[in-house]
Design brief:
Layout (H helix, E strand, L loop, with lengths): L2 H10 L6 E5 L3 H4 L8 H5 L8 E4 L1 H7 L8 E4 L1 E2 L12 E2 L3 H6 L4 E6 L6 H16 L5 E5 L10 H13 L4 E5 L4 H6 L5 E4 L7 H13 L4 E3 L2 H4 L4 H13 L4 H14 L4
Parallel strand pairs: 1-2, 1-10, 2-3, 3-6, 6-7, 7-8, 8-9, 9-10
Antiparallel strand pairs: 4-5
Helix pairs in contact: 9-11, 9-12, 11-12
Length: 266
């Protein structure tokens, strides 16, 4: 691996082999998402527990302090909105020159395997990898499913993740599912687990993250279950313990309750 590529990957995946990415890129198709109306203010108390931010260039430039920021994974795909016809109809929105100008550690884009725009998004990934490899910039492929959440089974996610790796992605972001080991075993690059819709309970989040890490995931890329939570700092600290301190779901829940109670919140 080239020095620049290895250095950037080391900014993302920590010496213990794990990582906690905090995505705040949701506005690129959802607009001013609840709790991300002012993203810079939302993430200030959370940054200490994150290893990297997944963010668009607009929010990065206008809401993130360049002096205190964590390494950046720059979202470089888009072109659709939640009220449009098809979320899968994405294109590349950001040049590699812009990625370099913003000093991003990596870039991320979505692929929509099984959609009518499958070929388009997979070719976008191949093109992005070609351009980024020239500059030692890792690409994270996001195995998006749009609004079709029923697609999240091991067979489908293993297919998506392997195709992303075959096309050159250095990291794959995908969903946790039953039999998650089948997804891990079929993908030769690190996998980070997406958060998806907000969990019903804290323990639900701790359980699927713990299971994913135990089965070989490098870490998580989890946003709404943290910054939309009533107690976001407690969630971040508890999940950080699962990822970097080998905490069990029970131990993570204890950490969550301790931080929550110390803050004086009910």
């Amino acid at each position: 691996m080239d020095w620049g590529m290895e250095n950037r990957m080391a900014q993302l995946i920590q010496p213990d082999g794990h990582c906690f990415f905090l995505p705040i890129d949701h506005g690129y198709f959802l607009g001013p998402t609840r709790c991300l109306e002012r993203p810079g203010e939302t993430i200030k108390p959370l940054l200490k527990y994150a290893d990297a931010l997944f963010v668009t260039r607009g929010v990065l430039r206008n809401a993130i302090n360049p002096v205190t920021s964590k390494p950046v994974i720059l979202r470089v795909s888009g072109g659709t909105s939640v009220i449009g016809d098809d979320l899968a109809n994405e294109g590349l929105t950001t040049s590699v020159e812009e990625v370099i100008r913003l000093n991003a550690a990596a870039v991320g884009m979505s692929i929509f395997v099984g959609s009518k725009h499958e070929r388009q998004t997979l070719l976008n990934l191949g093109r992005l990898v070609d351009e980024c490899e020239d500059y030692g910039i890792p690409v994270m492929a996001v195995t998006a499913v749009g609004k079709e959440l029923a697609k999240r089974d091991a067979r489908y996610l293993a297919l998506c993740s392997r195709i992303a790796a075959e096309l050159g992605a250095r990291v794959v972001k995908t969903y946790w599912c039953e039999d998650f080991e089948k997804v891990i075993n079929g993908c030769p690059v690190p996998i980070v687990i997406a958060g998806g819709p907000k969990c019903e309970t804290e323990l639900e989040a701790f359980n699927f993250v713990y299971d994913g890490i135990q089965k070989g995931a490098a870490g998580i890329n989890l946003g709404r279950n943290c910054w939309q939570h009533e107690h976001p700092v407690a969630m971040m600290k508890a999940l950080h313990a699962v990822i970097h301190r080998k905490a069990t779901p029970k131990q993570a829940n204890e950490i969550f309750m301790e931080v929550k109670n110390k803050s004086g919140q009910k």
